[in-house]
Amino acid sequence: MSVTKKEYKRITVKTLVDMKANGEKISMLTAYDYTMAKIVDGADIDVILVGDSASNVMSGHETTLPITLDEMIYHASSVIRAVNRALVVVDLPFGSYQSDPKKALRSAIRIMKESGGHAVKLEGGKEVKDSIKRILNAGIPVMGHLGLTPQSIYKFGTYTVRAKEEQEAHQLLADVKMLERVGCFGIVLEKIPAELAEEAAESVSIPIIGIGAGNGVDGQVLVLHDMIGMTHEFNPRFLRRYMNLYQDMTIAISQYASDVKSGEFPSDSEQY
Question: What is the dihedral of CA 38, 41, 44, 47, to 10 degrees?
Fold first, then answer.
């Protein structure tokens, strides 16, 4: 049974909780710059994630670990200037919150003050509980992230599906409930079994956003550059490519280069 989509002039953290309560799915995509964010926001995406995946798709790093807090603020500032409707959530980068709740608060405050972002997201469960509470106590909305947590890739050693074993699944469910209890407004679950993700979504009143976590959750998130096919090496099962911009752009740029070489561009009508 489909749910009629409501028109929202501005998405807030309360909007997302209400959407879950009303059975309305939540759409979420990444963006890292003004031009892309303008397009994404104009297409009525509910949440824009300024993800630390910028480390991969914008800077070419192998992992998300190298991106700095200053770089995240730069990307988030660019996105905020483009957005009129979506809620903008900004990732706290690796090293900016894990070891010290006071440092976590300072990092979150910098993101909110210097970029204008609407909320922050961080990875982990009980081990980052104190950092989350410190940020929330300052009035900054927090989104959690469980399952496959890319900032811990060297701990896991692989990007394989998480929480397939009973012990890890049990801990994930406990962390989901803990994150709701301390005050997170939502949680991203990445690359976990669909049945477990659905159980998690049903166990809490805050929205659960999945990426590689099946359709039983409250919304979905993808990396924009993957979804529109600007990247082409990354092909996980959960990724649906809605365009093939890598191919289309390659053809267009090659044609431009050829037209310049041959003198076809600019034509008489394209000059003054």
Answer: 160
